Amino acid sequence: MDGRVRELPESTRTAAEAGAALGCEVGQIVKSLVFRVPSSDEAVLVLASGSTRVDVDRLATLLGSAVEQGSGSFVRERTGFAIGGVAPVGLTSPVRTYVERGVLGWSRVWAAAGSPRTVFDATPDELLAATGATVVDVAEG
């Protein structure tokens, strides 16, 4: 995915901001959501479509353990990125990664590239290959 990073003049901190800045559907924006497993202090990354909310109970069932949203300091420590710019690749340490099935419904998606104003595009297959993620069904509803 070299050469695909774009720096935008507007913030892309939220999926709605990114969609507006790129002129694409909010669903094409891939949110990088970092959760913490309290029992093990493990970080778990869920890549979800910008129009999808992750069901924390479904994620906990999948993991076999309670989960909580990672704090800003936890996210930065485990990924190397600040909330609002967490890239799904280039993490400072290995993080178990999942892709919510809804991401696969798009021919092209956009993900954060390490800052609130940078993004890169990929096909869902490219994103899966680059992250080594497992496809899961953890969307609300």
What are the SSEs and their pairings?
Elements: E1 6-7, H1 15-22, E2 29-37, E3 42-49, H2 56-63, E4 68-69, H3 72-79, E5 96-100, E6 109-112, E7 118-122, H4 124-131, E8 134-136
Parallel strand pairs: 2-6, 3-5, 5-8
Antiparallel strand pairs: 1-7, 2-3, 2-4, 6-7
As residue ranges, the low-confidence spans are: none
Strand content: 25-35%
Radius of gyration: 14 Å
Give me the secondary-structure category: alpha/beta
CATH class: Alpha Beta
Describe the overall structure.
The chain has helices at 15-22, 56-63, 72-79, 124-131; strands at residues 6-7, 29-37, 42-49, 68-69, 96-100, 109-112, 118-122, 134-136. 36% of the residues are buried. It is an alpha/beta fold and 141 residues long. It is 23% helix and 27% strand. A hairpin with a 5-residue loop joins strand 6 (109-112) and strand 7 (118-122). It is globular, with a radius of gyration of 14 Å. Strands 1, 2, 3, 4, 5, 6, 7 and 8 form an eight-stranded mixed β-sheet that branches. The mean pLDDT is 93. The chain has one domain: YbaK protein, CATH 3.90.960.
